[in-house]
């Protein structure tokens, strides 16, 4: 079956630094990928839609300058958390659709100290 | 935008008991998915429902889709501690980019 990977799976960074998270579709091409965020004991919240060859579409309330998304190729989307703060600590998951199915990455746990 | 409301928000049951989780959409459902997850871990796909009245089962978990009510229910029979986790329903739009959203989530704890 289709596989989506994320890297890193776990990262700790200092406040004020930037962190890049990669999402790759391993055996299929994805012109669109999605980024989600999850806080403890809460559901996944859609942050943005990553579009290959064009700008990402952000959901209401998500800061574009804070969460930079680049869909570099048909198999790679990156999410960069800029000037990270402790409140950015969260679990980030990406997904890529293939036909009508969504394939989810294993997630990245970000801790900002 | 479409909202998916799950109920209950959290649930604690004794092992062996049956339970039901509901997912209600504010808009027409064209496809409804159920996942299980533990915070900090990936999603485990349970099942997908596409047609009104459709019912699917996976081991002791059964899900049903009621298109008219814009609702899906997930039923667990004879719950076990291994069923504990967060249950999420998900839905996509009928066309376009298949933007995918999740329900508010239901946290299940099963007491041994």
C-alpha Rg of chain A (nearest Å): 13 Å
Report the major sheet of chain B.
Answer: 6 strands, mixed
Shape of chain A: globular
Shape verdict of chain B: globular
Report on the architecture of this protein:
The complex is a heterodimer of chains A (113) and B (112). Chain A is mainly beta. Chain A is 0% helix and 56% strand. Chain A has no helices and 11 strands. Chain A has strands at residues 4-7, 10-13, 19-25, 32-38, 44-51, 57-58, 67-73, 76-81, 90-98, 101-104, 108-112. In chain A, strands 2, 4, 5, 6, 9, 10 and 11 form a 7-stranded mixed beta sheet that branches. In chain A, strands 1-3-8-7 form a 4-stranded antiparallel beta sheet, with no helix packed on it. In chain A, strand 5 and strand 6 form a beta hairpin. The N and C termini of chain A lie far apart (37 Å). The model of chain A has no long low-confidence stretch (mean pLDDT 93). The N and C termini of chain B lie far apart (40 Å). With 112 residues, chain B is an all-beta fold. Chain B has strands spanning 4-7, 10-14, 19-25, 32-37, 43-49, 55-58, 61-66, 71-76, 85-92, 100-102, 106-111. The mean pLDDT of chain B is 88. The radius of gyration of chain B is 13 Å and the shape is globular. Chain A binds chain B through residues 32, 34, 36, 38, 40-46, 49, 51, 60, 91, 93, 95, 97, 100-102, 104-107, 109, and chain B through 1, 6, 31, 33, 39-43, 48, 86, 88, 90, 92, 97-105, 107.
């Amino acid at each position: 079956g289709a596989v989506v990977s994320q890297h890193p799976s776990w990262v700790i960074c200092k406040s004020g630094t930037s962190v890049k998270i990669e999402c790759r579709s391993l055996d299929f091409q994805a012109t669109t990928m999605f980024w989600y965020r999850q806080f403890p004991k809460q559901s996944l919240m859609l942050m943005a839609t990553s579009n290959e060859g064009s700008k990402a579409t952000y959901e209401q309330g998500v800061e574009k300058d804070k969460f930079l998304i680049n869909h570099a190729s048909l198999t790679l989307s990156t999410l960069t958390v800029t000037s990270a703060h402790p409140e950015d600590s969260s679990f980030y998951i990406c997904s890529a659709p293939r036909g009508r199915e969504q394939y989810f990455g294993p997630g990245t746990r970000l801790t900002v100290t | 935008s479409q909202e998916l409301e799950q109920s209950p928000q959290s649930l604690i049951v004794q092992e062996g008991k049956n339970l039901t989780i509901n997912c209600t959409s504010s808009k027409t459902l064209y496809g409804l998915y159920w996942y299980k997850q533990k915070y900090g871990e990936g999603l485990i796909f349970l099942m997908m429902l596409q047609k009104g009245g459709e019912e699917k089962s996976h081991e002791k978990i059964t899900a049903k889709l009621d298109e008219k009510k814009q609702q899906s229910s997930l039923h667990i029979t004879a719950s076990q501690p291994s069923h504990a986790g967060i249950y999420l329903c998900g839905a996509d739009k009928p066309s376009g980019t298949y933007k995918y959203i999740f329900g508010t989530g239901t946290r299940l704890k099963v007491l041994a």
